[in-house]
Amino acid sequence: MKRLSLVLAVLGCGVAVSPFVAASFAAAAGGSTATKIGVIDIEKTLYETPAGKRASDKFDKARQAKEAELAKQQKELEKDAADLDKQASMYKPDVLKQKRDDLEKKFVDLQTAAAKAERELAGQRATLVQDILKQANPIIEDIAKQEGVDLIVERGSVLWVDKTLDLTDKLNAKMK
């Protein structure tokens, strides 16, 4: 997941820098090109707009349901482990070993289920962001035209930006 974030950040920086490179080539060739760039913070849109809040709430309910199910399984596993520890002296060594092996298998299964749930939630989160972007794209395009912006990048892929280039509040005001 960290590798994907790094790749997206590098690509975002490349997209953000490429107009500057093109502009400097145009200037060197005797032409004059001024590129105006804007920034949108999609995370802020997710948390501050009605559409984003609805999507975030839906995601949070799914996350909480998965966490509750995993917590239930973990408590059962802890109870089984405590019961086995209490009753260990009553079992023959080979039976005790088998019960511990079974418990260990349940633990591995729980870890696998947790990793699967994490992947599913990451996929749902990505889908949520894509859905908001689909809804926001026409609005972003209108804002870009109104502001005379040639390029809009996501705030998460930029290390620093002048606040005057941030168009998030204009987007959020139009999102329903």
Question: Could you describe the 3D structure shown?
Answer:
Helices cover 76% and strands 5% of the residues. The protein has 176 residues and is mostly helical. The chain has one domain (36-174): 2-Layer Sandwich (Protein Binding, DinI Protein, Chain A). A two-stranded parallel ribbon has the order 1-2. The radius of gyration is 26 Å and the shape is rod-shaped. 9% of the residues are buried. Residues 1-11 and 13-30 have low confidence and may be disordered.
User: What is the overall number of helices?
Assistant: 5
The count of domains is 1
Task: Using the coordinates shown, work out and report the CATH topology.
Answer: Protein Binding, DinI Protein, Chain A
Rg for CA atoms: 26 Å
Strand order of the largest sheet: 1-2
N-to-C order of helices and strands: HEHHHEH
Mean pLDDT: 85
Residues in β-strands, percent: under 5%
Proper CATH architecture: 2-Layer Sandwich
Outline: rod-shaped
Helix content: over 70%
Terminal CA distance reads 31 Å
Annotation, overall tally of beta strands = 2
Unreliable residue runs: 1-11, 13-30
- What is the makeup of the main sheet? 2 strands, parallel
Please give a quick description of this structure.
This protein has 176 residues and is mainly alpha-helical. The protein is built from five helices and two strands, in the order H-E-H-H-H-E-H. The protein has a two-stranded parallel ribbon with strand order 1-2.
